[in-house]
Specification:
226 residues; alpha+beta; 3-stranded mixed β-sheet; two-stranded antiparallel sheet; 7 strands; 26% helix
């Protein structure tokens, strides 16, 4: 019996060292194995939900009683994309992040709540003002700051995380925008239409979030909303 046990141990040791086998491959279990367990951690250590085009949408910390200035990507490391002249974010720097407080089951008590939702969870300008300057350096934005919006990629009215650096970017003004005219981006009405569609039940929250993360300029068409 002892010799049989020694032989089995020898086989196991040889498999692990030479073939790279894991206990799971031998019928055991491994706490580090991926698959049906909890979702992989995002950059901030939180989970993530499925996004479009194979991308995962990170789950941020959600609304906080007190917000702090978040670290931004290194200066010059982010690059704008353009679709028919409209500025889009750099997916590597701004992949989007959603709030765990907003789910399909909680729409009526959050983003679709009568009386509004976003004003009570929005970070103060003392925080976002500093972040905006840092993020402008990240993207190499040198235009007038008053014409650029420090924008939530997934807007607050669509359940975007309020202050996760992955969900905020300095959005340049639209093509033809008059310098000094202030913020007036075409992305804003897209967000409003998506919010209306979600709250009326025309599309799911997840579908709206995926569409705007992929490309806000095509989000309405992708969902059949015009």
């Amino acid at each position: 019996m002892r010799s049989a046990r020694r032989a089995a141990s020898s086989v196991l040791f040889t498999c692990l060292v030479l073939a790279g086998c894991s206990p799971a491959s031998l019928g055991g279990s491994s706490s580090g194995a991926s698959g049906s367990g909890s979702p992989a951690a995002g950059p901030s250590g939180t989970g993530s939900q499925g996004g479009s085009s194979g991308r995962e949408i990170a789950v941020g910390a959600g609304p906080q009683k007190t917000y702090t200035v978040q670290q931004q990507p290194a200066a010059g490391s982010c690059h704008y994309r353009y679709e028919k002249g409209e500025p889009l974010e750099d997916p590597a720097c701004t992949p989007g992040a959603i709030s765990p407080a907003v789910t399909q089951a909680k729409l009526k008590s959050t983003i679709c709540r009568k009386g509004g939702y976003t004003s009570g969870i929005r970070p103060s300008t003392s925080v976002t003002g500093k972040e905006k300057k840092l993020n402008a350096a990240s993207y190499g934005y040198t235009g007038t700051m008053g014409d650029a919006e420090y924008d939530h990629l997934i807007s607050l009215q669509l359940g975007g995380d309020p202050n996760d650096a992955r969900n905020l970017w300095v959005e340049p003004p639209d093509p033809g925008h008059r310098m000094g005219g202030g913020v007036n981006n075409r992305k804003d009405p897209v967000e409003t239409k998506l919010h209306t569609a979600v709250c009326s039940g025309k599309v799911t929250l997840a579908a709206a979030q995926k569409a705007i993360v992929t490309d806000w300029t095509t989000a309405l068409g992708t969902l059949g909303l015009g």
